Amino acid sequence: xxxxxxxxxxxxxxxxxxxxxxxxxxxxxxxxxxxxxxxxxxxxxxxxxxxxxxxxxxxxxxxxxxxxxxxxxxxxxxxxxxxxxxxxxxxxxxxxxxxxxxxxxxxxxxxxxxxxxxxxxxxxxxxxxxxxxxxxxxxxxxxxxxxxxxxxxxxxxxxxxxxxxxxxxxxxxxxxxxxxxxxxxxxxxxxxxxxxxxxxxxxxxxxxxxxxxxxxxxxxxxxxxxxxxxxxxxxxxxxxxxxxxxxxxxxxxxxxxxxxxxxxxxxxxxxxxxxxxxxxxxxxxxxxxxxxxxxxxxxxxxxxxxxxxxxxxxxxxxxxxxxxxxxxxxxxxxxxxxxxxxxxxxx
Length: 347
What we know:
By secondary structure, the protein is α/β, with parallel strands linked by helices.
């Protein structure tokens, strides 16, 4: 079981020793790209037990062709390969990905803080009250932001690694907590520890505006019944861009749920086109994201932002998810398919 990392993170804390740890794990700036995926025989079978080519193989092959040598897309293929686990990575120091967007990470799970002229919108709240106190609060202070300015906590879905610190921040700073109705209902049924009290419902394609910044919140069910994926305006100097954060990547267990997930991917691709999304974000290290954060932290001023993928590449990101999900559906529907493992109650 992966345990949350507790630390008070500042840029000064990111020592050479910690950077060496990341390098050893292959995630420091300039490290070699991670492997594309597990061997086909282990997780993306080329044939069934009768020797007939598997219906899933063309989808997995397409995903790999789309990914090519792109480390972001190759990481995505790995993350969506059956049997893959999240890497247990050291918690990095907080870093501004853009002038108004801060990454606050426990290593294996992350939150994003959107800084506005009238306060902070926090996207996800990590795993626990301890993470709120040990990562989110000091992390905001480390980048010059006041945690007391947190006005809203938007939860992408109802798993404990995303809502764990929300009630602490609501109690301390008066922040309002937002989640989809379906996932508020999920918490009501499951009654997990550290669950926030039910507060505000996120409507599909709803908007949250604070300090002149408007975040779009789109229902993308599949990972959970009410997963939400935000579209966030970000800026770097005078340049403004549109960012997306896919709310939950770990695929569900049944064919019906997988098809719901696939429909969400297809609908959100349309949202991304309309919003001219150029930036990809994730709340887990399944997209080469922590590697890119370290690259950004250490690169010289004026270098290209590694999170700014551009429109075609962000669309290809979603196309890789689409192809991998089609492969998972084909595997689940195969006559000789073994039972699909239930997803982790997280991620």
